Every structure is written in structure tokens, then in C-alpha cells.
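REQUEST FORM: STRUCTURE PREDICTION
Request ID: SP-0412
Submitted by: Lab K.M.
Chain count: 1
Length (residues): 206
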Amino acid sequence: MSEAFRYFLIEGGPVLAMASALREQRDGANTAAWEWARRHGAHGVATDAGGIPEMSRPENVVGVSRLGPQADNASWRKLRGYYAPKAGAAALRAEMNALPCFPDMSALNVAIGWEGVPAPGYRFQGPLAQLIWEGDALCIAIPTYSLFGGVTVESARRAVEFATPEGCREISAAEWSLIGAQWAVEREKRQKAAAAVDEAPAIKVA
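STATUS: Completed
RESULT:
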């Protein structure tokens, strides 16, 4: 994990309920979008976030990342970095527009009191804090960099002075990486156990 963040493990309090709901919404939107893409022979999804994870509004699905061999190429048009339904593919476009949007993450920033760094010309302070997770563990990542990508004196000062939110505990980047590694190991064990059950020989009943 990057040292460009401060990490706060969410252990309880009102932030836990909000973060859990946001994760559930994001997981649901992601599952629906990927299933839609796969049904049409495509892979990955593109949103109107423009590659910026710290969105201060909901993200909408605008297309897919790439087309597979089963895709109907006549229904898609290639744009900058993704494929979108053509104007004539009304049913495909309607399906896409009906997909749930990815939730607005700025509410979490308000709840924890993170204001980010003033960004002249932008409609929000930035970058926003990010909600990340590994398994059941939820974490808030407070950026130390500015909206324009670099670490400035002001951005670092605001991050350092940020108080630990109620119900959270600050951990290091290495600790968060360890939580992720432990979750990956447990997931691998479960997958192996499931595979062993599937491969077990059938029991003959006399």
C-alpha cells in the first residue's frame, strides 16, 4: 500500500454503519455492471468517473472496457478508452442506463470531517478520502497529496493534523497490507477446500 495515505481501520461507531452501506451499494453496482457486460460478450466496465476514484457524485456506467469474441461489434462504438452502445442500439443503451450507479463517496468525508485541500476552480475540496476493504475489514484512506497529484506542504499538513475518526484506529500501510494478505490466504484455503469436496469420489450405496 502507498505511504501517500494515512489508514484508519473502522472498528465501530456510526462510521461503520455508513461505510458498510456504501460498500454494499458499490459491490451491488459492480456486480450488476459486470454481469451486464458479460451478457453482451464484453469485459470490464467504464464509468463517468474519468479514472478519478475520489468522486464527489455518483458514478454512472457509460460502457465497457473491451469487447470479447462473442460481442456484437455492430452495437458498440469505440470512444477514448472504452466502448459505448451506439445510438441505434436502443435496447442495449436502455439496459446500461438502468444499471445502479456507484454511490457518492463524499458523504463519508462529511461524516468523518475530512475537508481535503482547497482546489481553486474545482467544486469540491480534494482529494476525497477513500473507502477500501479486504474481506470484512473496512478502512478509510486519507490522502496526503493534493488534487493535482503531488504532495504539497498544505496537503501533508492537513493529513497529519486530521484527527482519528470515532470508532476507528490508525494503522500503518504495512499493517493494512498484512490484513489484505491474511484475507487472501484465508480465501485461498476456502477455495482449495471447496475444490477438494468437488473432486471427492462419489460414495457408492449398496
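NOTES: The mean pLDDT is 84.
Reviewed by: T.R.
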